[in-house]
UniProtKB/TrEMBL annotation:
InterPro entries: DUF2809 (IPR021257). Keywords: Membrane, Transmembrane, Transmembrane helix. The keyword Transmembrane applies. It comes from the Bacteria. This is Membrane protein. The chain crosses the membrane at residues 7-23, 29-47, 59-79, 91-115.
Amino acid sequence: MKINYKHLSTFIILLIIEIYIGLFVHDNIIRPFVGDALVVVLIYFFIRSFISKHIRFLPVYIFLFACLIEVGQYFNLISLLHMENLKGAKIIIGSTFDLNDIFCYFLGTILIFVYEVKWSK
């Protein structure tokens, strides 16, 4: 397996931004909207760091994965898995369903498609 260091470094930068947003930004725009849009982009660059083959529908798969996590929040997945006391699990999986999150995941997916069309060739 060959690592794409360009994608890996982009992933690390986005991860640092996401952690910063999660820890220090407590507003009504950046944290709930930008953070959610960036999370699908973050996952994309993580996967592309290790998979060099172009996967045509990868952005769609990532969007569906994010939506699946959101649906898990609707059904209180944290409680079903008996992980209520694990702060890390609550942060990663989340605990509150919000349709706006799915819209933000969609916007992040659009960003991925724009990246693929303009810069990934």
